[in-house]
Amino acid sequence: KIVHQLKKLGISPDWDRERFTADDGLQKSVRKAFTTLYNEKLIVKGNYMVNWCTNDGALSDIEVEHKEENGKLYHIYYPIKDSNEKLIVATTRPETYFGDTAVMVHPDDTRYTHLVGKTVILPLINKEVTIITDKHVDMEFGTGVVKVTPAHDTNDYEVGKRHDLEFLTIFDDKGVLNEHCHEFEGLDRLKAREVVMNRLKEEGFVDKVEEHKHQVGHCYRCNNIIEPYISKQWFIKKEVAQKAIEKVNAGETKFFPASWKNNYDAWMRELRDWCISRQLWWGHRIPVFYCEKCDHEWASETECESHCPKCQSPNIFQDPDVLDTWFSSALWPFSTLGWGNEDHEKVNMEDLKNFYPNSLLITGFDILFFWVARMLTMGVKFLDEVPFKDVYLHALVRDEHGNKMSKSKGNVIDPLDMMQEYGTDALRFTMAILAVQGRDIKLGKAHLEQYRNFANKLVNATKFLQMKADNFQDLAEIELKTDLGKYMASRLALCVEESRQNLDIYRFNDVASTLYKFMWNEFCDWGIELSKVDTQSAIELGSIFKEALKLLHPFMPYLTEKLYKEIDANNRSESLMIQSFPKETKRDLTIEKQFETIIDAIVSLRRAKVPIDFANKTIPTAFIKASNEFTIDLRFIQKLGKVEEVTLVNERPDNVVVDVGDFVETMIPIGNLDLTPLKNKLSKQSEKLQKELEKFDKMLNNERFVANAPKEVIEENRKSRNEVEEKLKKVEGELKQFS
User: CB–CB of 335/25 below 8 Å?
Assistant: First the structure.
């Protein structure tokens, strides 16, 4: 299904190289990587504190999703042996107190100095544990007294190692309480909380219970609450990542947006040994074998071992666990290129030489640590070179209101449906133009409609050009002779320059915006319109349009391929996608200034005609005062400004309507225009506004209305009255001007 979506989107990899994570070649790569690290003692097995899901087993740190939840802080009395004193211990997990092997206070906390070294008795089970000191304690949290449960808390695990405490496991791998919990044995660890608290209350061991917000870890697969749990697992030592950290900090891999480099550094600084074994049925099986006769353990690149290499016994078995899926994914930049299969006759090892390292990785920011960091680690470890030079981390696609897509919310946008309704090219261009680095994409139908209209605009431009000629030469093959052709070619040069610069730094939205502006605003809105005056320029515009289609092709491949073939004089058989991307060329700034002035004059003239109600009518005369000192081709202004005669002047004549543009002043003499319809229209507007004003004044001068109406109603009416008065002044001013 994913491959089908990719093909519909026009994604264009070499489909012959498609790989699956459990392909035979990739299995060999996984076994080689594991065995190498095992033999170098960088993969070890031991009892570690891990993130444990009672459904899915061990998880690495980044497979745990932390969510803020409304919980409770339970204050429990711990009696002190041979004393009437009690310590109050604050905890969020009272059901784990059966595993306490110490109670802890801060060494500088004078409230408890006299109690250090004494013994407390755990409620209900009468177990004795010692009061110790450790700087890990936060004196401001709760009562400043903390229970120490080394086998069920990550921080307590480290405390237990520092103080040589007993590590007491109180529930099994399914979360069921064991014999250490006495009468509560057999209860599920989550259901036990309420039962245990009720018994503690009955026996008078509860001081108080407070509402408490805190972060709770959940399994990313099943959303089950995670338990810190001591389990025998396979780990990759954190030292394996050291060289990758150094190479990234030396600038050998760059992140886009650059801010993600800080996130990467922060995570790598806090790196811990990576738990790679999983208690699942699906995955690469750990390639470690055990001999039942001599207890020998070894890792092997061979899929199935037949006997022990030490004592030759056939009584051997393989480790039943599988590898974390990210272990095999971490090898992807080189396992897909034949690494680990050097002895296979069908494997072309030239691929590894040609395609490692890759230039660019594009992926979601949410798997920066799951995948990107691990590919960097393994690539540097096994090939001594970073696997990619640049990493572009794209944002999430959300709905038009910024909400994360969710089936339960009913706001999921299916790309196949959007392509069916709006076209693949419109969807691709929409995604590109919204993909601002570091920001999530808010995708709505209005965006898709806008860029479907853009696609239609390009189709219409092609049809216009085909009316001028059957087909067009490449831009490099023709000599530009018309001023308009030279102007549009110069603007294309700027478009190429900006597109290349932004592509180099992966600012895809800026490239898309540049292309949209050039092809719609400049080429279609102005180039094609201006060519209706200079008909010779249309042939040159066709060649410029062809070059622009090459720029647009990576964004809208289907449409540009079709349009290019329709207007290509050379009738090339090969695809547009394998032609050269346009190179930067020299701009003609003089011709650009000339046409900037012409376009400014046309826009200014159109604005000047609006107040006198001649927007879509032809007028006899207009004057232009230009600030630039060069020749202006007045034909363009006459045709597109709808004026019979345009005269360049140095001074402003009397009795004219004036509009000031960026480069010109436009003046329309009103003495020879019939303004009767306009004056009648303004007079009617004036009468209507005067009646509205009188109505508001009558209402607001009514003492009874002012006394009884709500304040906000009066304010709203006063505001509306003032707006009407302003409109009336404007209309009367225009009437006076045109009388």
Answer: yes
Cβ atoms of 624 and 645 within 8 Å: the answer is no
Cα pseudo-dihedral 141, 168, 205, 198, rounded to 10: 110
CA distances from 15 to 6, 18, 360 (A): 11, 5, 18
3-state secondary structure of 650: coil
Q: What is the mean pLDDT of the chain?
A: 91
DSSP state of 15: G
CA distance 188 to 175: 6
Burial, 497: exposed, middle or buried (Cβ in 10 Å; 0-12, 13-18, 19+)? middle
Say how far apart CA 205 and CA 203 lie, in whole Å.
Answer: 6
Nearest to 175 by CA among 93, 233, 100: 93
Per-residue pLDDT band for 638 (boundaries 50, 70, 90) equals: very high
Please answer whether residues 644 and 618 qualify as being in contact, where contact means their C-beta atoms are separated by less than 8 angstroms: yes
Q: In the numeric block, which tokens belong to residue 33?
A: 């990587």
Structure tokens given for 703: 């003492």
pLDDT in tens, 689-718: 899 999 999 988 998 888 888 888 889 999
Question: 691 Cβ partners below 8 Å, 6+ apart?
Answer: none
Q: Quick check: 286 and 323 in contact, CB under 8 A?
A: yes
List, in order, residues 6 or more apart from 353 with CB less than 8 Å away: none
Write the DSSP assignment of 210-258 as a string of letters.
Answer: EEEEEEEEEETTT-PBPEEEEEEEEEE-GGGGHHHHHHHHTTSSEEEST
582, HSE (Cβ side, Cα atoms, 13 Å): 30
Token look-up 């806090």 returns 270
Q: Give pLDDT, residue 248.
A: 94
Q: Are 182 and 98 a contacting pair, CB within 8 Å?
A: yes
Render pLDDT for 397-439 as a digit per residue (tens, 0 to 9).
888 888 887 777 788 888 899 999 999 999 999 999 998 887 8
Could you tell me the CA-to-CA distances from 41 to 37, 289, 340 in Å, in that order? Answer: 6, 16, 19
Q: Which residues pair with 319 in a beta bridge?
A: none
**Residue 50, strand partner residues:** 229
**Distance from CA of residue 174 to its chain's centroid?**
37
Cβ–Cβ under 8 Å, residues 379 and 373: no
Asked whether 485 and 540 are in contact (CB, 8 A), the reply is: yes
**Residues 690, 677 contacting (CB under 8 angstroms):** no
- Is-contact 597 633, C-beta < 8 A? no
277: which strand partners? 323
User: Rounded to an integer, what distance in angstroms lies between the CA atom of residue 289 and that of residue 38?
Assistant: 12
Q: Which two tokens stand for residue 214?
A: 């805190």
Beta strands in 24-85 (DSSP E): 43-53, 57-59, 64-79
Q: Strands (DSSP E) along 303-429, which ranges?
A: 316-318, 322-323, 358-364, 388-394, 397-399
575, pLDDT greater than 90 = no
DSSP 690-725: HHHHHHHHHHHT-HHHHHHS-HHHHHHHHHHHHHHH
3-state secondary structure (DSSP) of residue 585: coil
Asked if 420 and 283 count as a contact pair (C-beta separation under 8 A), the reply is no
Secondary structure element (H or E) that encloses residue 738, with its range: helix 711-738
Tell me the average pLDDT across 36-47: 94
The amino acid at 251: G
* Secondary structure (H, E, C), 533-568: CCCCHHHHHHHHHHHHHHHHCCCCHHHHHHHHHHHE
Question: What single-letter DSSP state applies at residue 183?
Answer: G
Q: How far apart are CA 187 and CA 237, in angstroms?
A: 36
SS3 content of the chain, % helix, strand, coil (to 5): 45, 20, 35
The pair of three-digit structure tokens given for residue 163, joined into one six-digit string: 């103080």
201: left (phi over 0), alpha (psi -120 to 50) or beta: alpha
β partners of residue 299: 288
What is the pTM for the complete model shown?
A: 0.75
Question: Using the 8-state DSSP alphabet, how is residue 576 labeled?
Answer: G
